[in-house]
Amino acid sequence: MASAPPPSTGRELLSPPTDGISNLRFSNHSDHLLVSSWDKSVRLYDATANALRGEFMHGGAVLDCCFHDDTSGFSASADHTVRRLVFNYNREDVLGRHDGPVRCIEYSYATGQVITGSWDKTLKCWDPRSSSGQDRSLVGTYTQPERVYSMSLVGNRLVVATAGRHVNVYDLRNMSQPEQRRESSLKYQTRCVRCYPNGTGYALSSVEGRVAMEFFDLSETGQSKKYAFKCHRKSEAGRDIVYPVNAIAFHPIYGTFATGGCDGYVNVWDGNNKKRLYQYTKYPTSIAALSFSRDGRLLAVASSYTYEEGDKTHEPDAIFVRSVNEVEVKPKPKMLPNPAS
Amino acid sequence: MSEGENKMLTLTETTCGTLLNELQIIWEEVGESDTEKDRMLLELERECLEVYRRKVDQANKCRAQLRQAIADAEAELAAICSSIGEPPVHIRQSDQSTGSLKAELRAILPQIEEMRKRKSDRKNQFIEVNGEIQSIKNEIYGGGYASKDVAVNETDLSLRKLEELHIELQALENVKCERLKHVHEHLNYLYIGCSVIGLDFKQTVSDIHPSLGEPEGSKDISNGTIEQLRTAIQRMQEVKIQRMQQLRDLASSLLELWNLMDTPIEEQQIFQKVTCNIAASEDEITEPGMLSADFIKYVNAEVSRLEELKVSKMKELVFKKRGELEDICRKTHLIPESDNPVDLAIEAVESGAVDASCVLEQIELQISKVREEALNRKDVLEKVEKWMAACDEESWLEEYNRDDNRYSAVRGAHLVLKRAEKARILVNKLPAMVETLASKITAWEKENGVYFTYDGVRLLSMLEDYMTLRQEKELERKRQRDQKKLHGQLLTEQEALYGSKPSPMKNQSAKKGARLSCGGAATSRRLSLGGNMLQTPRHDMPPPAKATPVIRNAKKTERITQDSLKEDGFQILSGRRGLDLAGLPANQHSLNLLNCRETESPMMRKPFSPITSTDSSRSNATKFLGDLNQKHNDMMPKMLTSNNTPFTTPSKIISAAEEENRMPQVMATPVPSTPSTMPIPMHLAMTPMQKPLPSATMQIAITPAKSVDEEIEYSFEEKRAGFVLPRSHLVNLMQVL
Asked: Does the beta carbon of B542 lie under 8 angstroms from any beta carbon of chain A?
């Protein structure tokens, strides 16, 4: 580790959202960053140039956003709408609506569909290519056991985490039934779920400082690989403080992952070798969202109070983009020559 | 002059007189007789008269000629006038005016001259007009129309006639114009038609009449040509309609194929003009070459290409479906009917004799049938899988038991030990398993009226075989035990006789191992034999042990827990550390126990509430607990350490889980104390803070005031958004709770 110590938190983006950041994502084609916020806006930043490139205002708080291609994206809003945003023309249109606030949104390159999960206990698939109008663009509605809290997809697999610790695994080619119905391995409310980039499983975090590593393979050998670990905790004056784990982001190349908690820390883990690789210096407030850029060289960190303790005064919301040093994310294999996966 | 004439006259008179005088003189001299003289004189006088008469006659004749000429001239004049239809110009007023005939004639001659000229002019006009008429008629009616009318009727050259001729000419010209237009129209139409169906226009037209092909110059407009043009157009139209029909058919099949195969737009674009004309009427198709034979051939080629593609895709689909069918059959251990119509049909498809779609339908039907059957069998099959896995485990155990070095401390030995322990339990449960399975199968067979076959073998017979084999093995074992005992006795006797005990019974154990291995091998071979024969690799089957949830009797579990607590409560509590080592499942247990001790905990968990375990590892743990309580407590840590799956899926604790799912702040204190007592290597490596702390709190302490809300979890976001579940849901939830 001869390299000079990186700046403690990374570069802070100018003109951040004025209220809580609900999610941020890097584009798959460039270093553009899409940010949704409780201030009812979706913003597009050029992370390398540190410039605000576009802003869309919605009727309600925006709970999630994702890219379509580099010139357009989608947003999920608390005003029940799902919108399509075209950055070049600063144009937006409503793709459809849910019966409740829309919590998560994902775009599947495999099927060309937009998938949204809502607190109305449904999942909906949309075809963004069809002309606007709910009845045209809606592909299907799939009832969930509870309100959808988090969603992630890899390839043709979609993992949906809901309230009540339900986890449904879908095959996007056959959405009529969940491929697997599971229950979270963790005892507490699910905060975030993210699929492994290699498509073999998913990581799931809870409000009680813990992350479970799960595998899709239902065979005994497959299931024997799963485990959970504790993180984002602090012992202070004889009291153990456990923080919710709000965000998980996988490194696109190494398969290692970063977690962000309400303690303001970002930790990088090597899931195969069960090691923590790095801990970044503390951010001013809770980590609301994390995203690696397409090549894994940049990590966007949303430092934004996530309302875990209700309405209170808190640090200003900020987005930090830090360049990632290889040693921070590269797995360090221990003596075992062939790691489990 | 008159003086001169007179003089001449007088001279002549004098001459005559003098001559007479001279004669008289002569006569006097001669003395002629008077009679002679008289006769002479008479003769002279008669001769003189004769001369006079001749001259007068002459003059008379001349006059008559003159008159004749005048009359002739007048007649001619009149004729000319009448022929050109003009009033006679010269009406005889000559009687009074002009005196002499000669003057009259002189006057009439220029008139005649002029009239002649006019007549010839008129005649030329007629000839000209007639010629034109003739030529037009020739054009219209063809060369056959002879020039009979060319000779102009000299008698009637009147203006009226000319006018008539002009009118006729006009009419003919109109007709010609009309026809020319007609021809042009036809040509135009023909041109467009030719370009559409891709014929050489010039060639076509030249065949009809050479003049039509010329870009410049007059066109032939004869009846024949027009008729030919008309037929040519008609023919062309027929061709066009026919080709259009062809193209339409092609287009519709194109569309159908595209639709069927999701052809990309780019590929479709090339034939867009074909398909967009599918509904066009005949005269809407105007694009050059649209209906040319080449183009149709081209489209036809595309259609046949797509057709081929479709066929190949269909074949592919058929094979895929067949694969699927086989797959399902294999998975459900059904033997597909051997002389399957599907197999035959597939051969037929390959040879191209049968339409793939109907085969596909057949296969689909078959698949659905098999699926239905599979569903029907599923229940039993699951049990079979479990049994098979147990059998595997059993044979493994036997093999393992034969291993003399099994207790040596090699790396991973604890894992094997643990597996053996599990296997033993499983083997103990085998007879019951087989029994339930058999009863299930008989029930199934009764219900369905057919034998339940597994890879073609009747399952019940397989079970029976297995049971007899087992019994044999049991007997063998018993016999061995007896023998061993006997041997022991023998040894003791020997010892009593000769003192020392011979060293361990190596050959004995070897024998036993050998024998057992025979049995084990037989079992496994038998079990795997069927599989091999039917190409179902055993390892393909999902191992049922841990992954498939076993619904355990909640009551039983409860009883065990309570019993264990009652009888060995202290041990369990003191053995908590050990249990914790075993990871989450055990952990959960200890947590329960812990929680029931910590009555000050704000948690509303009911102690020892019924627990249904869906996870077998969990249930194993429970069972261990039960077993161990009955046996040696000091064994417990070891056993549980060998249970090396720290974080298997947590058990489904129906009521307890619901309570645990509540927001962390509700459960404040006791939570982290449990996880913190988990010294698993991974955690040491990963989690920075490790110290077990007596009382830890989650720093999230927003306690909603409403009691209903306390029952429902909400995420931070939902709270922030003020999202509240609808009332109806709350009621449901309450009922569930």
From this structure: yes
